[in-house]
């Protein structure tokens, strides 16, 4: 860490007192440290302590008097090699997710183009609130590094998750990724798609399908349990995932799913496309709600891009790609044809003729075919169990 320039952001939470130790850890490791603090955080720690420990002036207000200060957020952002926000409150997480810059810290971070580490700290109900979780997922998507909070006694005298990671753990996460020893940086990555896509007809109507997303979410969880960092790109679903190694990205249409997959597939070692992507989308979406007509009418549809085929055509030799096939007739033959024409490593076949398999069920019955046309059929099981079987088959296939 010697010689690194670290920008530390302190927000208003009781864990701010622990950040004093973090400043010391960085300084002892030979780093130069500058601190930006929010007004609320000043109630928890004093400027004198921070300036003494960091050996630099503390940055609080964006618009102090000199001309130099008005662009200080830009020069601070240029100066530092990395930024660490500890404690990160629900407020700063929300502001960064939305791109709001209304004080020195949020403005500096928005102007920052180097790695940013976020160490959340808050009450458990706040931390688990869907809005905060969605914002954290957005930050993961924007490539912020989230240093997960711990479970234990919180400042509100409740046991729960939301306690800021210990200063030593934050220091290790940051220094580990600088030296390349950080576990999450060296971990294998996977990309999973899940759920349906919704193709808009007008502002209130869409063409969709009955996929719930459960199969894709179960696959993402099975991969995370095997130690993968998983990017999960999902169409509209009510499902939530509690695995911390799953970085969820929400999309609506086939086109949005394609763009998100193109952005993320290159870093994946394994790609599993379980989404039920619409094959057609309306040629035009009307801006206003379509009025009821007395007569029948036609809606013109155009084909969507086959995401699986597009990604498979660009994949590198060290990447493994798994597709799904949903068939009603000549199942094995159709699945083999998809496997070869889409250039996949594995295809997972669901037949709608199998009772308890396919959409809107908690169970599934699948057959997996690899590119040498080896076939394994699994009996009807829960989608979670099937997901574990699929991932194990793929991992065994990669090894052999
Ligand atoms: N798929 C995709 N993009 C599309 C359509 C499908 O990536 N626009 C993917 C699905 O995620 C799945 C696989 O292709 O992994 C097969 O989907 P399926 O609906 O069974 O096959 P299609 O290729 O759409 O062919 P058909 O509907 O004619 O059976």
> What would you report as the Rg, rounded to the nearest angstrom?
25 Å
The small-molecule ligands in this entry are: cytidine-5'-triphosphate
CATH class annotation of the largest domain: Alpha Beta
Class of secondary structure makeup = alpha/beta
Estimated helix fraction? 25-40%
CATH architecture heading of the largest domain:
3-Layer(aba) Sandwich
- The CATH superfamily of the largest domain is CoaB-like
Number of helical runs?
15
Structure summarized in a few sentences:
By secondary structure, the chain is of the alpha/beta class. Helices cover 36% and strands 24% of the residues. The strands form six sheets. Strands 13-12-9-14-17-18-20-21 form an eight-stranded mixed β-sheet, with helices on both faces. Strands 3-2-1-4-5-6 form a six-stranded parallel β-sheet, with helices on both faces. A two-stranded antiparallel ribbon has the order 7-8.
Explain what the structure shows.
The chain is α/β, with parallel strands linked by helices and 400 residues long. The chain has two domains: 5-184, Rossmann fold, CATH 3.40.50.1950; 189-287 and 299-399, 3-Layer(aba) Sandwich (Rossmann fold), CATH 3.40.50. 36% of the residues lie in helices and 24% in strands. It has an eight-stranded mixed β-sheet with strand order 13-12-9-14-17-18-20-21, sandwiched between helices. Strands 3-2-1-4-5-6 form a six-stranded parallel β-sheet, with helices on both faces. Strand 20 and strand 21 form a beta hairpin. Helix 1 packs parallel to helix 2 (47-54), helix 1 packs across helix 9 (167-179) and helix 4 (72-79) crosses helix 6 (104-110). Cytidine-5'-triphosphate (CTP) is lined by residues 193, 254, 273, 275, 277, 279, 304, 306-308, 323-326, 338. Cytidine-5'-triphosphate binds next to helix 13 and strand 17.
């Amino acid at each position: 860490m010697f010689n690194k320039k670290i920008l530390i952001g302190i927000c208003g939470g009781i864990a701010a007192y622990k950040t004093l130790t973090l400043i010391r850890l960085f300084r002892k490791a030979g780093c130069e440290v500058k601190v930006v603090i929010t007004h609320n955080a000043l109630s928890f720690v004093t400027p004198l302590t921070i300036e003494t420990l960091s050996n630099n002036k503390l940055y609080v207000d964006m618009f102090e008097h000199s001309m130099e200060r008005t662009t200080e957020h830009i020069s601070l952002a240029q100066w530092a090699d990395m930024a660490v926000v500890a404690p990160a409150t629900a407020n700063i997480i929300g502001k960064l997710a939305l791109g709001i810059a209304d004080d020195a810290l949020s403005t500096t971070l928005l102007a920052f183009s180097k790695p940013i580490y976020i160490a959340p700290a808050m009450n458990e109900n706040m931390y688990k609130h869907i809005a905060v979780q969605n914002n954290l997922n957005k930050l993961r998507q924007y490539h912020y590094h989230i240093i997960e909070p711990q479970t234990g006694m919180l400042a509100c005298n409740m046991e729960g998750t939301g306690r800021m990671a210990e200063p030593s753990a934050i220091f290790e996460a940051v220094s580990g990724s600088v030296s390349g020893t950080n576990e999450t940086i060296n971990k294998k990555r996977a990309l999973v798609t899940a759920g349906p896509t919704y193709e808009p007809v007008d502002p209130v109507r869409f063409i969709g399908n009955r996929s719930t997303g459960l199969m894709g979410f179960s696959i993402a969880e099975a991969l995370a349990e095997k130690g993968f960092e998983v990017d999960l790109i999902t169409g509209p679903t009510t499902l939530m995932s509690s695995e911390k190694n799953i970085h969820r990205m929400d999309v609506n249409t086939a086109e949005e799913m394609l763009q998100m997959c193109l952005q993320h597939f290159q870093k994946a070692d394994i790609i599993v496309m379980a989404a039920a992507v619409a094959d057609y989308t309306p040629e035009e979406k009307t801006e206003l709600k379509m009025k009821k007509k007395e007569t029948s009418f036609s809606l013109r549809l155009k084909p969507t891009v086959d995401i699986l085929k597009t990604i498979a055509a660009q994949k590198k030799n060290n990447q493994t790609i798994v597709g799904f096939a949903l068939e009603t007739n000549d199942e094995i033959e159709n699945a083999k044809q998809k496997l070869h024409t889409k250039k996949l490593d594995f295809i997972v076949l669901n037949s709608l003729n199998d009772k308890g398999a396919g959409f809107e069920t908690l169970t599934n019955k699948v057959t997996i075919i690899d590119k040498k046309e080896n076939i394994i059929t699994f009996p009807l099981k829960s989608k979670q169990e099937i997901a574990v079987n699929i991932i194990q088959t793929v991992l065994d296939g990669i090894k052999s």
